[in-house]
């Protein structure tokens, strides 16, 4: 369940709300994420079965995440499999805000 970027989708609240089909949780997450990401996120957007699944995805992860797009273009499972892992600015920038992603990717590389 490790996403292209290194986040663990199995721990993501959007994933958990989808798995439990919990509308109250969806409403809470939508409110929280709208404030956090300064975006208009509605409860109905809170549906995701994981970055690398074939199922439904949260729109940001599906269509906007540059790391996911890049992995797909290079046919990589995740950034840990990339030759530019240590030098990639996109990944560095993301890992500054999500250090847990770097930790998970480092583990995959070791
Ligand atoms: S792909 Fe889905 S489950 Fe994974 S981090 Fe993004 S929103 Fe969460
Ligand atoms: S170039 Fe960067 S974003 Fe693209 S796959 Fe490699 S590490 Fe990930």
How would you describe the overall organization of this protein?
- This protein is mainly α.
- The model has no long low-confidence stretch (mean pLDDT 97).
- The protein is built from 6 helices and no strands.
- The protein has one domain (9-109).
- Helix 1 (13-20) packs antiparallel against helix 2 (23-36).
- Helices cover 51% and strands 0% of the residues.
- Bound molecules: iron/sulfur cluster (2 copies).
- One iron/sulfur cluster binds at residues 67, 70-71, 74, 76, 79, 82, 84-85, 88, 90-91.
Give me the count of strands. Answer: 0
What class would the helix/strand composition place it in? mainly alpha
* Shape annotation: globular
Order of helices and strands: HHHHHH
Q: Give the fraction of residues assigned to helices.
A: 40-55%
What's the number of domains?
1
Indicate the low-confidence ranges by residue numbers: none
The mean pLDDT is 97
Span between N and C termini? 18 Å
Number of helices: 6
Q: Largest beta sheet, briefly?
A: none
Present as ligands are: iron/sulfur cluster
Q: What's the Cα radius of gyration?
A: 14 Å
Portion in strands = under 5%
């Amino acid at each position: 369940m490790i996403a292209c970027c290194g986040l663990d989708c199995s721990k993501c609240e959007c994933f958990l709300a989808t798995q439990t089909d919990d509308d109250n949780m969806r409403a809470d997450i939508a409110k929280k994420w709208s404030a956090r990401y300064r975006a208009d996120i509605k409860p109905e957007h809170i549906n995701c079965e994981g970055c690398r699944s074939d199922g439904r995805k949260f729109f940001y992860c599906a269509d906007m995440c540059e790391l996911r797009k890049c992995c797909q273009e290079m046919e990589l499972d995740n950034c840990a499999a990339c030759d530019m892992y240590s030098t990639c600015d996109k990944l560095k920038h993301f890992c500054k805000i999500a250090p847990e992603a770097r930790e998970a990717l480092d583990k995959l590389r070791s």
